[in-house]
Design brief:
The protein is an all-alpha fold and 189 residues long. The chain is 47% helix and 0% strand.
């Protein structure tokens, strides 16, 4: 019997927040396969979708499996810039406390990918960038695994800073994307 491709925790979110995550699944057209946007997009998908081949949840950015859609979140360019790191799938302490609030020691290649992504925002449509930013915001605020939510919160803050925007609080996000039309319209002004 088939089930939803969404991880269970996503189904507890308001429909508008679920929709934001789903719209972030699609990567930007016209970019090379090894572009950092593709790596960040893979990690977005890995953090809220069930992997099709394995039929499981895998938020470890470096674990093997997942095919090309939800596969490991690195490539030759990321490794070249980030240096040689071996056994990356063992680096993610999936159920241990973080020693750093920014996760940088735990996700070195993913942080390299984020840096390359932010260096290349002019390569991408602005609309795509906002999909990633809002997905990062939701994953940072709502993902049940603290390692994952901490990294996405870090990502959201870096994107907001890069775009010279104000940070939206979790309360503001929940009001804007809480399935209440009046609140949503008020936020659109």
């Amino acid at each position: 019997m088939n089930r939803s491709v969404l991880q269970d925790w996503v189904c507890e979110l308001p429909f508008m927040q679920q929709s934001v995550l789903i719209t972030a699944c699609r990567g930007p057209d016209g970019l090379p396969k090894n572009h950092a946007a593709k790596v960040i997009g893979k990690y977005v998908r890995r953090c809220f979708l069930i992997r099709a081949f394995e039929k499981d949840e895998c938020c470890n950015p470096y674990a093997p499996g997942g095919g090309s859609f939800t596969g490991p979140c690195t490539n030759a360019k990321i490794i070249e810039v980030g240096g040689v790191v071996t056994n990356t799938h063992r680096m993610w302490p999936h159920h241990t406390a973080l020693s750093s609030p920014l996760c940088c020691e735990k996700t070195p290649l993913l942080d390299v990918a984020l840096g390359l992504y932010l260096d290349a925002v002019d390569d991408m449509p602005h609309h795509f960038q906002t999909h990633i930013m809002h997905a990062a915001q939701i994953l940072g605020a709502c993902h049940p695994d603290k390692n994952v939510s901490d990294w996405w919160q870090h990502c959201y803050l870096r994107i907001v800073n890069d775009m010279h925007l104000n940070i939206e609080s979790i309360e503001q996000m929940n009001k804007r994307l809480g399935d209440n039309e009046a609140n949503w319209r008020a936020a659109e002004l």
